[in-house]
Amino acid sequence: MVRKFNFNPGPGVLPFSVLQKVQAEFTDYRGVGMSIVEMSHRSKEFEAILAHVKQNFKDILGIPEGYEIIFVGGGASLQFAMIPMNFLGKDQVADYVNTGEWARRAIKEAKLFGKVHVAGDTESDNYTHLPSELVFSSNAQYLHLTSNNTIFGTQWPSYPETGNVPLIVDMSSDFMSRKVDVKKYAMIYAGAQKNIGPAGVTAVIIRKDMLDKVVNREIPTMMQYKTHVENNSLYNTPPVFSIYMVDLVTEWIKEMGGLQKIEEMNDKKAKMIYDIMDSMPDFYKGTVTQKEHRSKMNITFRLPSEDLEKKFEKEATAKNLFGLKGHRSVGGMRASVYNAFPIEGVEELCKFMKEFAANNRK
Ligand SMILES: *Cc1c(COP(=O)(O)O)cnc(C)c1O
User: Fold this and answer.
1) Which residue positions in the chain have pLDDT lower than 50?
2) Which residues contact 138 (CB under 8 A, 6 or more apart)?
3) Global pTM?
4) Whose CA is nearest to atom 3 of ligand 1?
5) With a 6 A CB cut-off, is 173 part of the ligand 1 pocket?
6) Catalytic residue positions?
7) For position 288, what pLDDT does the model report?
8) Is residue 10, in this structure, part of any structural domain at all?
9) What is the pLDDT of residue 362?
10) What is the pLDDT of residue 144?
11) Which atom of ligand 1 lies at the shortest distance from residue 10's CA?
């Protein structure tokens, strides 16, 4: 078997050791005589997985008292709707920062439920940087940000101070990739498939006081945060297999040395690629215009022509460097180097980038 170096933006690469463990346990989960996908979500085995993954979250992120961890279906995209459905009244305002496609979609959903104030917006520059200035409304119910803009390759190096305004962050594509100070957030959410597991589950970390701020409107039971909190994510059948895999990935993060080590590795991997780009700016042009806004997860760059970009992708693929084609709204290339992406693959990419430039420069 030859494993590809998988630069896919999502679903993305997962630790090989985790995949092997899943394979080994698949038909007979730890001697139970059944697969994890055949067991009751109320079995003691699954309840143990749920308790274990929540403890791993606490250990890895340092989640303090006063927060709940829940696992819900529907992807991060469902959170775009659940957040305003729960927290934004018809005549109330929420602040959103428009930094890319996912932020835009979050804004679209919020407008269905209340008023949206766009506190910062870089759409006119095709999201090539983060806003230099944010203008908040005086009475926002919350501020919503996208931590890492998967498509456009920008990432907040730090977040604005929001005072008493609850900060809600979509961390789908950089969740558990760097240290965070959880107490600054009212809510963090992340679809699993970018960095912590397979698609199908979204992790939500929510401060308990938010549950008292739910607006007075009819909300379907499944769309209420309270439902999932009060039922320990077991109101209905949760995505058991995805949660099981998130548990294994978080265990891997702990084995790797936690976020301190993970962040160091991610910094190192990203720097290797950006250094190559910066050493040949006439050939590899980063699409992000401000270096301090560059993503450590999704590294986007263009080549001198679209023909060369096609050729780059083709030759890279032949060298087992897979998934480098950029999103159509940016063009060019995108190297997604999530937690589990091995440094050997980054070394291979850097070597290839040097060779390709040498062979194709005019
Ligand atoms: C991929 C992605 C989403 C959408 O996630 P789904 O789970 O497919 O709904 C939302 N936000 C960000 C930042 C993403 O990268």
Assistant:
1) none
2) none
3) 0.98
4) 76
5) yes
6) 102, 170, 194
7) 98
8) no
9) 80
10) 98
11) 1
- Domain tally, the chain: 2
Q: Which residue, judged by its Cα, is nearest atom 2 of ligand 1?
A: 172
Q: What is the pLDDT of residues 322-337, one digit of tens each?
A: 999 999 999 999 999 9
- pLDDT, position 170: 98
Ligand 1 atom having least distance to the Cα of 100: 13
* Span from the CA of 102 to the centroid of ligand 1 (angstroms): 7
User: Which residue is closest in CA terms to ligand 1's atom 12?
Assistant: 172
Atom of ligand 1 nearest to the CA of 75: 7
One domain, residues 146 and 181: yes
* pLDDT given at position 302: 98
Full residue range of the structural domain in which residue 131 is found: 16-255
Q: Ligand 1 atom 14: the closest Cα is on which residue?
A: 172
Residue that terminates a domain, selected from 222, 255, 288? 255
Residues 169 and 263 placed together within one structural domain of the fold:
no
Please, what sign has the CA dihedral across residues 63, 340, 9, 158? Answer: positive
Q: Is residue 7 part of a domain?
A: no
Residue 287's domain is classified under what CATH number?
A: 3.90.1150.10
pLDDT for the residue numbered 1: 80
CATH for 107? 3.40.640.10
Instruction: Compute the distance from residue 318 Cα to the ligand 1 centre, in Å.
Output: 29
